[in-house]
Amino acid sequence: MTLNNPDLMASLAAQIKTWGQELGFQQLGITDTNLSQAETHLGNWLANNFHGSMDYMQRHGHKRSRPALLHPGTQRVISVRMDYLPEPENQMNQSLEKPLLAYISRYALGRDYHKLMRSRLQKLADRIHAEIGDFGYRAFVDSAPVLEKALAEKAGLGWIGKHSNLINRKAGSWFFLGEIYTDLPLPVDKPGTEHCGDCRACLDICPTHAIVAPYQVDARRCISYLTIELHGSIPEELRPLLGNRIYGCDDCQLICPWNRFAKLTAEKDFNPRHRLNTQELLDVFAWGEQEFLTKTEGSAIRRIGHERWLRNIAVALGNAPKSEMIVNALKTKLQHPSELVREHVKWALEH
């Protein structure tokens, strides 16, 4: 195939979108690599120290906002989305309203999306290779310095909402993103347009007020950061605000009016494993390290390890209505080898 033929490139782009849908992606768009506006936004975010201890956000210089620096020769980015919503909104709200239940962000209930989507993107690249022969590419799923939301917005998959997640008018925001960087001069799609209007529901609902202004999230206050990214002690003043959220937080998505258009996932791998959507705090707090590893095998949850798992649950138990069972369970961890666990258990017993 003559790669500099616009008609052939347009035909290939249409085929790529068809193949993407056949592979289980709900949408696929194509964009160029100019991320100058997003680069400025990222620079300001880092300057405000909103990234907290996530040093990797600034470690790679401009590679995150200049795709050709990350993968030389990149001219276009193929951006894809895959729906992951495993249960209706009312079930999630019911879980949040039961303080003795362990609330886990719904993206993490099933199989780790990184592996599943990476495999699908590789299959898409193989289809392209079978059609045109060798071409330059590299696939990413949250696995390298990539501004995935900015790229998805430019590729027409939606717009970045005030909570900093990507929103699609027909599908809400319960989806994963992935990319293929490529040297193919494919035609680009129209970028997404903003449709948040005057709505500020996500800012108002955030338990820790982490959305400090529209489109600005201070990660240091965000429950997802505190329960997943943060390795040390959760700031004491924020602990009561975590409620029963032990891994991530979905509040800003739950309240978003656009999510009335969200559809349940068709991917069985994203359905809850080991009843992780209905587990009791006391039960998951009792898991030893081996049971934790077994129950979270193949899951994104595993990345925090058993120590931070116990840290998070101790906080949730401290926020739950006091009972003899909770106090006794917390006391069993007072001699835990981890100082981090012991500190949060002591706090929970005092509150």
UniProtKB/TrEMBL annotation:
Q: Which domain of life is it from?
A: Bacteria
Name the cofactor(s): cob(II)alamin; [4Fe-4S] cluster
| Taxonomic classification | Bacteria, Pseudomonadati, Pseudomonadota, Gammaproteobacteria, Methylococcales
Which residues are recorded as binding [4Fe-4S] cluster 2? 206, 222, 249, 252
- Organism expressing this protein natively: Methyloglobulus morosus KoM1
Report the protein name in the record: Epoxyqueuosine reductase
* Function recorded in the entry: Catalyzes the conversion of epoxyqueuosine (oQ) to queuosine (Q), which is a hypermodified base found in the wobble positions of tRNA(Asp), tRNA(Asn), tRNA(His) and tRNA(Tyr).
Q: Which residues form the active site?
A: 142
Q: State the encoding gene.
A: queG
Record-annotated residues binding [4Fe-4S] cluster 1? 196, 199, 202, 256
Query: What assembly does the database describe for this protein?
Result: Monomer.
- InterPro entries xref list: 4Fe4S_Fe-S-bd, 4Fe4S_Fe_S_CS, QueG, QueG_DUF1730
Single Gene Ontology MF annotation = epoxyqueuosine reductase activity
> What are the annotated GO cellular component locations?
cytoplasm
Pathway info: tRNA modification; tRNA-queuosine biosynthesis
Return the EC number: 1.17.99.6
Annotated catalysed reactions: epoxyqueuosine(34) in tRNA + AH2 = queuosine(34) in tRNA + A + H2O
Q: How is the cofactor bound?
A: Binds 2 [4Fe-4S] clusters per monomer.
**Where is the 4Fe-4S ferredoxin-type domain positioned along the sequence?**
184-216
What are the coiled-coil residue ranges? none
Q: Which GO terms describe its biological process?
A: tRNA queuosine(34) biosynthetic process
Q: Does the keyword 4Fe-4S apply?
A: yes
Location comes to:
Cytoplasm
Which residues are noted in the entry as cob(II)alamin-binding?
Answer: 64, 142, 166, 177, 224, 249-250
